[in-house]
């Protein structure tokens, strides 16, 4: 049997193509051309040149991303410890400085005493949930507003609208996809020119 990069082609299938050529040559010609293109593509992917090109693109992308997020500081508010560790690892690998909080009260205090370039806010927090935490942060801000990006498993238009009503800038959905995460961060941190909040909390923070 003839062999291609995609595997073995059964000989009786080829004979069937040949026998039907006189009846419907155009569809068979299209099939043959499609098979040829797929074979060439698969063979190309098996070459060292292909892998060198892919590795080069990945390396350039990582270097570019590292430069984009250099010196960026993010507050990660995530109740799930495993998710928190995973997201923090992803961010720090790109040179991002990350502080973490596991509940809304701690997040509110930390955001009040340190300037962050963005806040990643889990919406399902113990005690004070993410929407309310975001609203309280907005009430205390003066000057430049910190981008607040919601994180949730809920994928609904109503959810996006609600996040906007509570003062959040954008949303990423769980499970977190790297491309979506970094695109969103770049959109609100780099492209918008926003660079953190400038406000301080009073002793009455828990009464807000």
Arithmetic mean pLDDT: 74
Number of helices: 8
Total individual domains: 2
Name the structural class. Answer: alpha/beta
The order of strands across the largest sheet is 4-3-5-6-7
**Strand share of the residues?**
5-15%
User: In the CATH scheme, what's the topology name of the largest domain?
Assistant: Rossmann fold
- Write the CATH homologous superfamily of the largest domain: Response regulator
Largest sheet, strands/sense/barrel: 5 strands, parallel
Low-confidence parts: 1-11, 53-61, 195-208
Rg (CA only): 26 Å
Strands, total number:
7
Gap from first CA to last CA: 77 Å
Shape: elongated
Helix content: 40-55%
Order of helices and strands: EEHHHEHEHEHEHEH
CATH class of the largest domain: Alpha Beta
The second-level CATH architecture of the largest domain is: 3-Layer(aba) Sandwich
Keywords: Membrane, Phosphoprotein, Transmembrane, Transmembrane helix
Organism: Paenibacillus montanisoli
Modified residues (4-aspartylphosphate): 122
Protein name: Response regulatory domain-containing protein
Helix and strand topology:
Elements: E1 3-4, E2 7-8, H1 11-19, H2 25-45, H3 48-68, E3 73-77, H4 81-92, E4 97-101, H5 104-113, E5 118-122, H6 130-140, E6 148-152, H7 157-165, E7 170-173, H8 178-191
Parallel strand pairs: 3-4, 3-5, 5-6, 6-7
Antiparallel strand pairs: 1-2
Helix pairs in contact: 5-6
Task: Explain what the structure shows.
The protein is an alpha/beta fold. The chain contains eight helices and seven strands; from the N terminus they run E-E-H-H-H-E-H-E-H-E-H-E-H-E-H. It is elongated, with a radius of gyration of 26 Å. The chain has a five-stranded parallel β-sheet, sandwiched between helices. A two-stranded antiparallel sheet has the order 1-2. It has two domains: 7-45; 69-207, Rossmann fold (3-Layer(aba) Sandwich), CATH 3.40.50. Helix 5 (104-113) runs parallel beside helix 6 (130-140). It starts with a strand and ends in a 17-residue tail after the last helix.
């Amino acid at each position: 049997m003839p062999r291609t990069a995609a595997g073995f082609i059964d000989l009786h299938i080829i004979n069937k193509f040949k026998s039907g050529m006189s009846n419907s040559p155009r569809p068979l010609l299209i099939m043959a051309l499609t098979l040829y293109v797929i074979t060439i593509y698969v063979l190309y992917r098996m070459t060292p040149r292909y892998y060198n090109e892919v590795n080069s693109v990945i390396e350039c992308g990582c270097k570019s991303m590292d430069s984009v997020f250099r010196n960026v500081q993010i507050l990660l508010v995530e109740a799930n410890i495993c998710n928190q560790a995973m997201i923090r690892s992803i961010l720090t690998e790109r040179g991002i400085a990350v502080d973490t909080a596991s509940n809304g009260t701690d997040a509110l205090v930390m955001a009040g005493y340190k300037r962050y370039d963005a806040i990643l806010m889990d919406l399902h927090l113990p005690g004070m949930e993410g929407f309310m935490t975001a609203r309280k942060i907005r009430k205390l801000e003066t000057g430049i507003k910190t981008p607040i990006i919601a994180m949730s498993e809920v994928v609904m238009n109503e959810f996006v609208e609600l996040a906007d009503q509570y003062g959040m800038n954008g949303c990423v959905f769980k499970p977190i996809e790297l491309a979506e995460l970094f695109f969103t961060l770049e959109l609100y941190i780099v492209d918008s020119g926003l660079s953190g909040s400038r406000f301080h909390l009073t002793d009455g923070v828990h009464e807000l």
